[in-house]
Amino acid sequence: MSQAFITITIKLFAIYQEAYGVPELRRQFPPETTLSNVLDELVREHPPLAKWRDLTRFGVNLQFVDGDTCLKDGDELVLIPPVSGG
Questions:
Q1: Model pLDDT for residues 59-71, shown as the tens digit of each residue
Q2: What are the φ/ψ torsions at residue 11 (nearest 5 degrees)?
């Protein structure tokens, strides 16, 4: 029997942290949820984030991964928006 939901931690940086006002979120999603699905949900909650959707990179458990990667219970997702430095 599979579980109904997985719980993940979403680490927020830069524009994402500004939108939510916190450094991380804990969320539940159905099993087989992809990173892109999570980002879509955040964009639905904060539509101005849409302009960063295609520029955001993903990390799961300290590894860079593609947006079609499926999350597992307990994963830590990091959303890495474009940053500028100097």
A1: 999 999 999 999 9
A2: -85, 130
Please name the residue that has the structure tokens 């990179």.
Answer: 57
Q: Which two tokens stand for residue 17?
A: 């942290």
The CA distances from residue 46 to 22, 51, 53, 69, in Å, are: 14, 11, 12, 23
- Specify the CATH number of the domain 6-80: 3.10.20.30
Who contacts 42 (Cβ-Cβ below 8 Å, separation ≥6)? 10, 16, 19, 49, 79
CA angle 23, 27, 32 (to 5 degrees): 125
